[in-house]
Amino acid sequence: MMETKNVIIVGVGGQGSLLASKILGDLFLTKGYDVKVSEVHGMSQRGGSVITYVRFGDKVASPVVDEGEADFIVSFEILETARWLSYLKKDGQIVTNLQEIEPMPVITGAAVYPENLAEKIKAKGVKIDALDCLDLAKQAGSAKAVNIVLLGRLSHYFDIDEKLWEEIIEKNVPKKFLELNKKAFRLGKNA
Question: What is the value of pTM for the model shown?
């Protein structure tokens, strides 16, 4: 019997976290797991903080992940990683984009964006896999492919064939963007 695994996807509205959670949900369903994907919580318009939960296992009761329960946090932005850190299990894994998107308090000058967040998180003994997904997405052909770069990186932590990941991506992205997304996935995977 497999215990339920929890993935939290956090980011900023307009970054494609919904597509990422849909791809993950489809992937685990295809592998025969019971899957629950939560709706997006937060301000999904561009710039607001957004969180989705993907839970999979033999039998999943609720789509919600509580503090200290996430096996994985997949983050589109490093400040969001820090914001949701309390949700990570003791031995959980973070996969994050190093990109910094200034929230409104920083833009208005009411706050300062914290420096060296990845190093500060690592110093707490947290397993963090941080890379410049925006740069890799641009290499693939579009800054909008950050979500797929992150999934490519996340694929390291699952014993699931790369072909299946690509088939699920194919099912979920428009045909005209398929090659770009496959390239983004591989760049993330091999970074």
Answer: 0.93
